[in-house]
Amino acid sequence: ALYNKGLIYKGSYIVNWCPRCRSAISDIETEYKTENGHLWEISYALKDKLGAIAISTTRPETMFGDVAIAVNPNDYKYKDLVGQIAVMPLTGRQIPIIADEYVDMKFGTGAVKITPAHDPNDYEVGKRHGLQPLWIMDEDGKMVDSEIVPEPIRGLTREEARIKTVEMLKEHDVLLHVDDHEHNVGHCQRCNTKIEPLLSEQWFVKMKPLAEKAIQAVHNGELNFI
User: Is the pLDDT confidence value at 183 over 90?
Assistant: First the structure.
């Protein structure tokens, strides 16, 4: 009945996915821990002009799911590059350079890769710009066996893929810089595995119309919170 009334519906959404439990984990069950990681600076060549654009990322292994490079529209450094096409290192796939106010000009180089299937903020950017997500990791947290992922990296775990990706970037001379970087990483409350943001089909309940009667009951004094 709720489905027929349009109150329950199915749609795509980024969830906190635990590869060990093979389950979506609620925000309440996701515990964030401060970890010492790195910020990698990677060079993406420009297709139609000389030069390259350097992006900053904390997760180089997800680069194979990139669908764009984003810069802040107010960043004068990249004003002439918006609308240009960049060529991804290691795979040669071409992606657009877009402008979006989500980008923090003070983070790294001020240019970031957009991977909508594996990052909640990137997913929102992708929706705004009509970009199609690309999944590069499966429910076990392993790299997919697909042509969008280079052959040496297919089937590797997230951790193995990061090591191999960085190694290949060095070999191709496109890893420009590595900085130490402290950031918060979500862990599964059940088993302490690192959470993987993953775009998947989920069921949702439209709460606004269902909550109206309950809110009214509080306003009318029928219901009291103690």
Answer: no
